[in-house]
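INFO batch 0412 | record 1 of 1 | parsing
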Amino acid sequence: MTPLTIIFSILDILAGIIMVGLFLVQEGNDRGMGVVSGATNTMDSYYSKTKGRSLEERLKSATLITAVIFAVVSVVLYLSITKHW
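INFO prediction complete | emitting tokens
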């Protein structure tokens, strides 16, 4: 194994662990049967106005960024192993 492969392997494992941890910390969308019947909540509330700054939105953004990093590092790791960089 080359040093580059070892570094990418460690980054891949860390990104995977962080992604799973962020996913487990997030709250679920408990809309229940309202999703099936098409019911939506269109009420303007303080929460809906500040949703982008809430902790849940920051967790979702961090999870998305971590997932992209995980995917890119996985592809680079695969290429480094198969092309013997």
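INFO post-check: The two ends are 10 Å apart (CA to CA).
INFO record closed
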